[in-house]
Every structure is written in C-alpha cells, then in structure tokens.
Amino acid sequence: MAFDPKEHQHERLNPLTGQWVLVCPHRLKRPWTGQVEKPEEEKIPSHDPKNPLCPGSARPNGKVNPEYEGVYVFDNDFPALLPEVPTPEPSADPLRQSRGTTGTCRVMCFHPRSDVTLPLMSQGEVRTVIDEWARQSVDLGKKFKWVQVFENKGKVMGCSNPHPHCQIWATSNLPNEAAAEDRCQREFYAKHDYSMLVDYAKTEDEKKVRVLVSNEHWVCTVPYWAVWPYELLLMPRRHVLRLPDLTDPERDSLADIMRRLLTKYDNLFEVSFPYSMGFHGAPFGISDDLCQHWQLHAHYYPPLLRSATIKKFMVGFEMLAESQRDLTAEQAAEKLRNLPDVHYKHRECEEHSGSGSGSA
C-alpha cells in the first residue's frame, strides 16, 4: 500500500518551533451530526456610550477617551506587565528558578465604530492600523527587547468587547514562543545560509497547494505544519526583520492581503470569524547583523472546526502528548481559497438592495 497524505496518519515538523504535529486525515470519515446551522448574528451598535473603548466613553479607572476619529492607543488600565518592579533574588535551587522581567501593555483601537472589523474597514483605514503598529513597535522597542502586537477577536477567544482593537505588550525578556522561533531560525540559517521563511514563502507560492491569497509583496498560506484547522501564516516576500522595516508599498499590500484573508475567514461560516493573531519579528536592541536569521511574519490561530459553533479543543492527547489535526493543511487551504472574495455582509447588502429595486 502506497502512502497517501490525504488518507494515512503521519507527523509533520514545525521548523519554527521544532515540534511535531500528528495529522490523522482518515478521521474525517467519522459521522458527524452536530450543529451546523448559522447562528443568529449579534447586533452591535456603532457607538455605545457604556463601552469603555468607544470615543468619549469613560473607562473603569475613570479616564475618559477622547473623541478619536482614527486609531487610538492608551496604556492598559489593568496591565499584566509593569515597567518597574523588584527583581527576584538569585536562587541556588535548580528546580525553583525565577527571573525578573519588566514591560508594559497598551490597547489600540482600530476604528471609532464598534460595528466594524478589519475586513469591513477600507484599505486606507487598515493601512493606518499597520502604520500605528509600526510606530508603537519603534517606541516600545527603544526600551524593551520583545514587542508583541496581537489581536484576540471574538468571545470564544476571550474578547468580550466587540469594539475593534488589539493589544501591544512589550517585555524585557524573550517569551517562550519567540525564543523557540529565534533558536530554530538561527539553527536553520547557520546550516543553510538563507532565511527559513523567505525560502518557505517562495516555495509555497511556487507550489500553490496551501496558498490562500497572495499579492506583489505578501504570501498567505495554511502552513504545512498547521495545528489549528484553518491556521494561517502571513509572510513578506522580501527579507524583512521587523514591522517598522516595511516600505510604503509593502504596507499598502499588507492592508490589502489582510482584508482579503479575513474576508475568506468570515465567509467560511458567514460569521465574524474568531481568532488570535500576532506578528513575530526580530527582537529589538540587537544589531541587524545578528538577526539575519529572522523573518517578519504573522500567525493566525482560529479555533472553529466544523461550523460557527463547533470549535477545536486542545485537550487530552494534545495537552499531554502532541498536537493533532484531522483536516490536512492542503484541504483547509482549498476550502478557504474557493470561498468568495466579496464579504458575505456586502453580498447581503447587495442582494437586499437588489430585491427592493424592481417594483411598482
């Protein structure tokens, strides 16, 4: 019997982390009778004076937001990281080690309206978001080694506030995920003398099998080693170390491809698709010459599996042994790629206006 990746279980290596992923495509043959209908969509007002992220609203600490009209950034009122705290004493106990860390946390609102998300914003508005990400990275990178831009979208991802926003955390130490990617990219570069993800973006774009969308400057693919059902990896074609290093054309292209990939996400189950996403790039405060192994990229981790209400749970074997998936990366990419390029809400508006046009 010949091996068929669409039929037979196998493991795939994530070269960014060095971890293996168990792929079990034969499990897709299991009968499924769960809920698949589209749930009723929550009606979100464009402005709610009680929403602490809206322009002019008071936040829990008593501060009042300005009447902002674009992006708005403020220090998190309840930060996980503080810029100045005492440092733990060194310990001789090898099993009870700790280290000091400093940092800061900021919140960034994308838009003054609560009823829009990134795929429903204009390309110019998304470009403004990208420019602010770059500015915040430069500012925080002057003091902290790692700057993490990330967005948690949807209640299922722990985001209870529907207003379009993200968070930016900065820390003096390299976090676990960043440290693993730093090590693996460094080892790959030392062995092959070229950047792992620059080559990966090029070869994925040539193969096309897992590519969702692409443009002149960016490639978005379901990574070969994806863990989450519809996980995405977004990479620039050019060797770029950090968000602030992007050129104007690359930033315009990033706004374009983000809107396109997120439209595909929303169209999959015709809901505002939940996910956690974030950018990874070279640490700050280190010479670029020592960071040539790094390549800027963004991870998208969505939990939904079979419908708008059925999500993947990381439990059991996956918590205790190894990540596992049924749907292959190639199958996931094909499903997303074949979805319409026009957002379902825009199609609904067109259909509604069309139905009322013929008459009397």
Written description of the protein model:
This protein is α+β, with helices and mostly antiparallel strands and 360 residues long. It contains 7 helices and 12 strands. Strands 3-4-6-5-10-11-9-8-7 form a 9-stranded antiparallel β-sheet, with helices on both faces. The protein has a 3-stranded mixed β-sheet with strand order 1-2-12. A hairpin with a 4-residue loop joins strand 1 (10-14) and strand 2 (19-23). The N and C termini lie far apart (67 Å).
Write the layout of secondary structure elements.
Elements: E1 10-14, E2 19-23, E3 72-75, E4 103-109, H1 123-141, E5 146-153, E6 165-171, H2 176-192, H3 196-207, E7 211-214, E8 218-221, E9 232-236, H4 248-269, E10 275-280, E11 297-301, H5 317-320, E12 323-325, H6 329-337, H7 344-355
Parallel strand pairs: 2-12
Antiparallel strand pairs: 1-2, 3-4, 4-6, 5-6, 5-10, 7-8, 8-9, 9-11, 10-11
Helix pairs in contact: 1-4
Largest sheet: 9 strands, antiparallel
Strand order of the largest sheet: 3-4-6-5-10-11-9-8-7
- What would you call the shape? globular
User: Approximately what portion of the residues adopt beta-strand conformation?
Assistant: 15-25%
Helix content: 25-40%
Tally of extended strands? Answer: 12
Kindly, what is the distance between the CA atoms of the first and last residues, rounded to a whole number of angstroms?
67 Å
Cα gyration radius (Å):
22 Å
Mean pLDDT: 93
Q: Give me the secondary-structure category.
A: alpha+beta
Helix-strand string = EEEEHEEHHEEEHEEHEHH
Low-confidence stretches: none
Number of helices: 7
